[in-house]
């Protein structure tokens, strides 16, 4: 019988993924509640516990502010020595083929129960076995294909004589934990530590009667250096495979997002076409209303100019009345009244007839003036109403955002007559509606957009 494999690769250290702040496509949301969180502590709090006192002691001894450490996390992030802010390993027993989380009925499989029991003990004993690796985040995932652990830890090395007495250094920590200083890429303290952790996992499997094998090779056929090299290679391959899986998930999400974005953009283009058609028709209608109002105003101005008697006509009538009054005064001869002090005049009959004729003319002129005064007043009121109507239409055009559409509409039709303008506008509106009803006949800009997509 082929045994199950033990996997112990390095992880990417995505705390948001580990703590399900976001969920990848391979996560089953219905089972996220099955996950176990052993410890969840922020990086800032973990660094304060591990290095806060050492940072303050170091800063107290610095006279220059530019040498003080304001944020040790940022300092490690920008380090040139290859330190990581924290490290992660993924611990897994078996694969989705022999240790699936659930069966066809959605129930936890027996193999998964064995794996959960083993991984639970490994997580609970990690800190005790590794006192210099501060475990600040540890979760067991059961909402993916196979049960597995994410263990995130910070190496805390002490005993430095210069600088900070306590620092982040994985190699120094492992040496303080008893592992020999590394001699090369495939023979160093990190590989030795990972080999010890795998041995511990194999011991847990043997205690539970679980048959296991090293992924890709039988350990019994390898020497220790060969085993370390194989484990390192296996670790790199597993990490690369997991990285590629995550990249594939990211690409799939990007592809879905792009497809949705393309669909949304296509819908927006169609909506813009409909909106432009509506703006075009509104601009056309407002053009007709404004031109009609302006025509009425022009006609009223012409009538007013034609019947304007206020200046020249009034002056002419005044001169005529003044001349006739002077003539009538010269024709009248004063007559003394013996019986009263009131003065009388006498005129010739021909002059009296002239006086009566002038009086009738004056009365007629007064009636004519009153008539035209009323007509002029009415015309002025009508012009004021029409002017206000034109201004209201113009303000409505501006408030509805139709200004550009209105100007473009007028410019595109000049210098045609208004009749030709309206005919062309109706033809354009009909063509836009036809294109909207027949999606296969697209405007040129839509065709270019589709080609680019």
What does this protein look like?
Residues 227-310, 362-396 form a coiled coil. One of its GO terms (molecular function) is DNA binding. Pfam families: Mob_Pre. Belongs to the plasmid mobilization pre family. With 453 residues, the chain is an alpha+beta fold. The protein folds into 2 domains: 4-215, BirA Bifunctional Protein, domain 2 (2-Layer Sandwich), CATH 3.30.930; 269-332 and 369-452. Helix content is 59%, strand content 10%. It contains 12 helices and 10 strands. It has helices at 15-18, 43-60, 72-77, 110-129, 170-176, 189-207, 224-306, 312-331, 349-399, 403-413, 418-437, 444-452, and strands spanning 4-7, 36-40, 87-93, 133-141, 148-155, 157-158, 166-167, 212-214, 333-335, 344-346. It has a 6-stranded mixed sheet. Strand 9 and strand 10 form a beta hairpin. Helix 7 (224-306) runs antiparallel to helix 9 and helix 8 (312-331) packs antiparallel against helix 9. The radius of gyration is 50 Å and the shape is elongated. The protein starts with a strand and ends with a helix. Mean pLDDT is 78; it is low at 216-224 and 444-453.
């Amino acid at each position: 019988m082929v045994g199950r494999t033990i996997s112990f690769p390095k992880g990417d250290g995505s705390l948001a993924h580990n703590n399900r702040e976001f969920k990848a496509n391979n996560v089953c949301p219905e089972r996220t509640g099955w996950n176990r969180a052993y410890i969840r502590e922020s990086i800032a709090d973990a660094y304060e516990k591990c290095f806060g006192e050492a940072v303050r002691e170091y800063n107290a001894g610095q006279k220059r502010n530019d040498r003080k450490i304001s944020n040790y996390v940022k300092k490690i992030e920008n380090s040139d020595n290859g330190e990581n802010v924290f490290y992660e390993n993924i611990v897994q027993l078996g694969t989705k083929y022999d240790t699936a989380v659930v069966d066809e009925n959605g129930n936890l499989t027996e193999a998964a129960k064995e794996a959960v029991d083993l991984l639970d003990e490994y997580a609970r004993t990690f800190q005790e076995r590794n006192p210099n690796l501060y475990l600040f985040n540890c979760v067991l995932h059961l909402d993916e294909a196979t049960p597995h652990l994410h263990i995130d830890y910070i190496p805390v090395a002490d005993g430095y004589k210069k600088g900070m007495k306590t620092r982040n250094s994985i190699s120094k920590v492992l040496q303080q934990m008893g592992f020999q200083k590394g001699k090369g890429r495939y023979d160093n303290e990190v590989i030795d530590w990972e080999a010890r952790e795998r041995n511990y996992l194999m011991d847990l499997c043997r205690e539970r009667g679980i048959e296991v094998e090293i992924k890709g090779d039988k350990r019994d056929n390898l020497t220790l250096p060969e085993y370390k090299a194989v484990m390192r290679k296996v670790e790199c391959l597993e990490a690369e495979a997991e990285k590629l899986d995550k990249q594939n998930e990211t690409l799939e999400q990007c592809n879905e997002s792009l497809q949705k974005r393309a669909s949304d953009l296509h819908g927006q283009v169609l909506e813009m076409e409909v909106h432009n058609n509506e703006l075009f028709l509104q601009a056309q209608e407002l053009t007709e209303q404004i031109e009609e109002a302006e025509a009425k105003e022009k006609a009223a101005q012409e009538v007013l100019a034609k019947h304007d008697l206020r200046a020249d006509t009034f002056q002419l009538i005044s001169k005529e009345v003044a001349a006739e009054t002077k003539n009538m005064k010269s024709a009248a001869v004063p007559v003394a009244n013996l019986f009263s002090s009131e003065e009388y005049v006498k005129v010739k009959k021909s002059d009296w007839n002239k006086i009566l004729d002038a009086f009738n003319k004056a009365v007629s002129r007064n009636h004519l003036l009153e008539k035209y005064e009323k007509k002029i007043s009415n015309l002025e009121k009508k012009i004021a109403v029409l002017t206000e109507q034109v201004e209201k239409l113009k303000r409505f055009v501006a408030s509805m955002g139709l200004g550009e559409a209105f100007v473009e509409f007028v410019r595109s039709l000049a210098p045609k007559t208004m009749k030709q303008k309206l005919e062309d506008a109706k033809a354009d509106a009909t063509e836009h509606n036809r294109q909207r009803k027949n999606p296969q006949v697209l405007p040129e800009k839509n065709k270019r957009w589709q080609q680019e997509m």
